[in-house]
Structure formats: C-alpha cells, structure tokens
Amino acid sequence: MTGGASGAVRPAAPRLPVLGGRRSSYRERVAEALRAALIAGELRPGQVHSAPALAARFGVSATPVREALLDLAKEGLVDAVPNKGFRVTDVSERQLDEYTHVRALIEIPTVAALATGADPVELEALRPAAREIVAAAAAGDLIAYVEADTRFHLGLLALAGNAHLVEVVRDLRGRARLYGLTALSASGRLPASAEEHLELLDALIARDERAVREVMTRHLGHVRGMWASAES
User: Fold this and answer.
1) Which of 142, 145, 200, 230 has the greatest number of CB atoms lying within 10 Å of its CB?
2) Whole-angstrom distance, CA of residue 142 vs CA of residue 41
3) Which helix (H) or strand (E) holds 87?
C-alpha cells in the first residue's frame, strides 16, 4: 500500500473505532482510525497511500476512505498526490516545539484547575482509559495506546466544560503525531510514560494541584521526547 514499495512491510490495519459511543459513518470511523495510525507512526511521513489499498485493509469501499483522506488533507495530515494517492506530511522540529508550547499553555492550567473543580466521580470514570493505556503500552499495541490516550486526555479536558478547548487540543495532537512511540516502545520506556496517566488521575482525585502540575509538565515533556526520538 506504500507507493513504489512493492515489498514493503505493511503495518497492522488500524481498527475502526466507535466514536464517542454513538453511531458514526464509515467516513468518520475511517478518518479516526487513520488519525490513530498517523499519530502512532504506523503511517510514516513521506509515504504515499492510495484510497483503494487502504479500503482493502479496512474491508470497506474506496469512497469513504477517499472522503476520510480528503478530511485529513484539510487538517494538514496528508497531501494529495495526483494519480497516486495521498502522501503523509512531515512535521518539523520547530513545529513540534510550537505544538508542545501551545499544549502546555492550554493543558497544564486547565488540568490543574480540575484538582479543585472536577467531580471525583467523573475523574474516577477515566480510570479504565488510563488502565487501557498502561495495558497497551505493556503489549506494545501502539494503535490501542493512541486510542486510549486520546480518550483519556480529551475526556479529562472535557471536564473543564469548554468544548472549543477540547477541539483545539485534538487538532494539535493530530498535527504533532506521536511517531516516536515506536522508538519509545522498542526501548522499553513506553510503560513508564503510560503509568503517568494513573499518577495524574490519583493526584487529581487527591486534590493535589501542585502534583497535578508536576505530572502534567513531566508528561508533556515525555511526549515531546517521543517526537524527538523518532528523528534520532
């Protein structure tokens, strides 16, 4: 499915998720699965993929896949390549630094405020997602890691009651990618980063705002390290 690489090893097909517990179109589900594959680095910068080849992997028609790829092109995640398909866009070191900076400006104070403002029951409801992150890290399942990580972080931010903020962070996560996850997993460091989600949740439930800020700052630093490790 990679343009010009007939003998290339294919990554595992991304799963088709159910979005937010509601019924969704193939287009939405395929777009979400492709985002997860892009963020995890299963689809690498510079690779060219055709809609028919991706459709074969998903077991759906090419039309919803092509429409999903067009959606991703609008987000800057892929570029259309005439008569070939879509090329996964690259991300510069400067862009990664900028994305991390913006995320820190948004997420650290927002999550810290939840230490005193969020309902402990709603916080505890995020624990299954945090445990899924840890389990996926232990299993080396990067797609499952990204899917659970996205649910956890966006679900946490949603408790602040600002839907626009959640969408801004969702967009930043997609644009930045986490394609260093592969290197982090191979080095055995991914489980430690995964455990930070449970540590963060415990600090929030304990109403320890200082600890929340510390964990969030450390965690975002590790995320930036994931990106950097992909280029090292």
Assistant:
1) 145
2) 9
3) strand 85-88
pTM > 0.85: yes or no: no
Report CA dihedral (75, 78, 83, 84) to the nearest 10 degrees: -160
- Do 169 and 153 form a contact (C-beta atoms < 8 A)? yes
The CATH architecture that domain 19-88 belongs to is: Orthogonal Bundle (1.10)
**Judging by beta carbons within 10 Å of its beta carbon (0-12, 13-18, 19+), is residue 154 exposed, middle or buried?**
middle
Q: Are 151 and 186 in contact (CB under 8 A)?
A: no
Token digits of residue 103: 């995320």
Q: CATH says 93-231 is which class? A: mainly alpha
Question: Residue 196: what pLDDT?
Answer: 95
Q: Where are the alpha helices (DSSP H) in 75-189?
A: 93-117, 120-124, 127-139, 142-158, 163-176, 181-186
Domain ranges for the chain, please list them.
19-88, 93-231
